[in-house]
Amino acid sequence: MTFPKKVNLEEDNITVLKGKTLVHVELDKESKKYFQEMKFEIVFFLDGEFYAEEESGYSPYNWIWDTSQIKEGTCQPGRI
Q1: Mean residue pLDDT across the chain
Q2: By residue range, what is the domain housing residue 63?
Q3: What does the pLDDT average to over 26-48?
């Protein structure tokens, strides 16, 4: 999972997302060959809690996440 569009980094090298942010999900080549032969879902968690899902998963997948609905400081580093 990557954030290909502009991201802001704070002094502690923590990624800060603001507004509408592109989220790019792509399976590695080894995994992709197995997942292409079956149905799968892409599920997003925020701080360990279910947040969103795409029931018809495919790779690569892009999702526009409107972070304006998230309370500032909600997500702990490494917990997206």
Answers
A1: 81
A2: 8-69
A3: 86
> What single-letter DSSP state applies at residue 50?
E
Torsion angle defined by CA atoms of residues 68, 4, 59 and 48, in that order, rounded to the nearest 10 degrees: -40
pLDDT at 43 over 90: yes
**Total domains, the chain:** 1
Residue 78, domain member (yes or no): no
| Residue 24 maps to a domain | yes
Please state, for a pLDDT cut of 90, what percent of the chain lies above it.
14
**Contact predicate 3/16, CB 8 Å:** no
